[in-house]
Amino acid sequence: MADRLAKMKDDAGSHSPSLLTLREQLPELEISVDACFISNPYATQLFLDYFKEELLDTGAIRDVLEFYPSQNQVIAALLAGHLGIAEDRVFVGNGAIEIIQAVIHNFAKRRILVTLPTFSSYYEFAEGRVDVVFHTLRKGDDFKLDPHEYLAKVAETDPDVVTLINPNNPDGSYFSYEDLQTILRGLPPDVTAIVDESFIHFAFEDLNLDIRSIIAECEEFPNLVVVKSMSKDFGIAGIRAGYAVMHPERIAALLRNGFLWNSNGLAEYFFRLYCRSDFLERYDIVRKQYILETQLFYRQLAKVAGVKVYPSMANFALVEILGDVTADEVMQHLLVRHGVYVRTCSDKVGLDGEFLRIASRGLRENQRIIDALADVLGPLPQ
Amino acid sequence: MADRLAKMKDDAGSHSPSLLTLREQLPELEISVDACFISNPYATQLFLDYFKEELLDTGAIRDVLEFYPSQNQVIAALLAGHLGIAEDRVFVGNGAIEIIQAVIHNFAKRRILVTLPTFSSYYEFAEGRVDVVFHTLRKGDDFKLDPHEYLAKVAETDPDVVTLINPNNPDGSYFSYEDLQTILRGLPPDVTAIVDESFIHFAFEDLNLDIRSIIAECEEFPNLVVVKSMSKDFGIAGIRAGYAVMHPERIAALLRNGFLWNSNGLAEYFFRLYCRSDFLERYDIVRKQYILETQLFYRQLAKVAGVKVYPSMANFALVEILGDVTADEVMQHLLVRHGVYVRTCSDKVGLDGEFLRIASRGLRENQRIIDALADVLGPLPQ
User: Could you report the per-residue pLDDT of B287-340, keeping only the tens digit for each?
Assistant: First the structure.
């Protein structure tokens, strides 16, 4: 089993095999909790309620599947209205991953500075095309980015593109709106700053749990590119929806040679929902419910003997395994003995130690994760 | 109305505004037939039957929308099995349009030879990146490509990439399997040949109506790149599904820096259906039914006074307006007076005359198109 899991992991590169692949290749496994998968399940249910009422019950689903969706600029204009910015500043993507690819391939010409640990596509999409240099966050600092140390690293390495994920993946560390402004003000104006806010809906700076997106600053910083996945916060990874906010000249450059019809019909339906106040009001309730449950989960997880849970403002936490066992072994035991699938970070560059990334799911699933982890790490039964 | 239509057309570039955009911006229009839209409506219904039974009735739709789809290579491996070729020869795209973009951006380094008239993205995605040169098909030849004349043009213009659509868009002209082999054998081996077979399921060489795809020859011709949209033949443009067959080294080069998760959940569901014999058997029935109705439609369309219908092996025909009226005027009258939406070709490069591209829909809709066209082009009522 360990060998077969290792083989599947190899095939999936620096990502995890999907639940579907896992189920197909290891049909004897009973997977009850996918804590590898980082998304808000309550938001998925909200979307499904709208989907059923507006597309299935009315028969409108046929049009969504049969006809071409609108072009990039049409959907971008809708989003711009919702975001309160000019419509030539929004670029729509087939998931954030397409935008990351487009931005790195088109705007990185010389050297990219990637903060570690990170989402591997940020350096993989650049490798062989431009120099890749790293700024490594330390576990001794809880992976917290220090803006001044970061700006010193920029000055030292002289990149033309820098990438920052906030909250960061896979550790969930968060830098404040103020710290991000400090970084943007301190960057040379010709350095493109890619700020990935795919997990920003789970972060908060006070108990109102409001979203503090840097999108509002896009006019002040022409070098800023904000990337936003919809998969995590809205629980709709299968739809593939993402957008970016950047300077109009960059968007014009991308649209000049492509990216014309890159949304599918359901993504367009979702984006239209995302601009509607009735949907957003309900979404904000499930967003806040999920944040509160998630933060409670982390506090309970930290009580399990033999782990250290790093502070997280995302919907996953980085969990260090302190004993003599490896992260891969714990992952396998959780999967085989308890049907709990978590992300081993043994392939993550820049992590010193044995780490799992564990996503928050619903309340009951979170409890199963805690019980399973306590069992796997606990003393052997007599 | 004419001004507003012209403005919408301008906004959509060298494509037509979608039905959704049209309905939103001109809500007073009643559109009864979208003959701008080129897809098999019977195949859409077949897909919807499966979709309802397997995803909606079972509740499996939640997994499709919530979870990440499989990675590119996983879906490619499934398709390769169905196509009977090696799995490292298949590349999956978010619609054929993503593949056209990827292939042109990555493989065209110097000069691209594009056959005219054509689908505009073939030159638009290249413009400003590489030289674009054209090989113009003549209406006096029914837009039929002559393989020897074509090879002479290749020798004369010295491109590194050539593009061929078979059957061609927007005229529906078809070159035989044998002619295509002649071209592939005659091309210098370092010239990449992009052959777009997005409409090949509607073409036939004998009364069995079998599909004659050049994919089978991909091992013999390492410079061949076959592009295939699923939107037209399967009637699922909203899902965005396409694939390409090409040399393994080209696919490895594309996957090295991107295109990791470019399918959505419904596209993956469709691709899995596309590999199932029960689905394919039913599909082949609706494919042949649609071909027969389509060819009948063209014969009836040709009887309308004042038009010339060019021979087509696609699911649309190029219709020349012979009188003193422009294609734009006929398009507007069809839309406003009859709710019939057709594609004006006034923006198509390389067409000398006034042309509409009219898609075949269901039997009843096709009759409405004929009646509407006869009315618009007929003598004014006394």
Answer: 999 999 999 999 999 999 999 999 999 999 999 999 899 999 999 999 999 999
Write down how long chain A is.
382
The domain in which residue A232 lies consists of 67-276
Q: What is the CATH number of the domain that holds B341?
A: 3.90.1150.10
In our burial notation (b when 16+ CB lie closer than 10 A, e otherwise), range B136-154 reads: bbebeeebbbebeebbebb
How far apart are the C-alpha atoms of A341 and A35, rounded to whole Å? 5
CB of B267 less than 8 A from some CB of A: yes
Q: What is the pTM of this model?
A: 0.95
For residues B81 and B212, membership in a common domain is answered with yes
Residues in chain B: 382
Long-range own/partner contacts, residues A273-276 (CB < 8 A, 24 or more apart): A273/A47, A273/A50, A274/A79, A274/A82, A274/A230, A274/A234, A275/A78, A275/A79, A275/A81, A275/A82
Whole-number Å distance between alpha carbons of A95 and A92: 8
Question: Predicted ipTM?
Answer: 0.94
Distance from CA of B379 to the nearest CA of A (A): 35
- Residue from the list B39, B51, B66 with its beta carbon closest to the beta carbon of A238: B66
Q: Both tokens of residue B269?
A: 């569901």
Provide the CA B141 distance to its chain's centre, in angstroms: 22
- Say if residue B273 is in the same domain as residue B336: no
Answer for the pair A253, A192: CB distance below 8 angstroms, yes or no: no
Q: Are residues B9 and B135 in the same domain?
A: no
- Residues paired with residue B116 on neighbouring β-strands, in sequence order: B136
Nearest chain B residue to A55 by CA: give it.
B56
Residues B39 and B149 grouped into a single domain: no
DSSP 8-state secondary structure symbol assigned to residue A43: H
Burial pattern A337-349, b for ≥16 Cβ within 10 A else e, equals ebebbbbbbbbbe
Residue B196 has φ and ψ, to the nearest 5°, of -95, 110
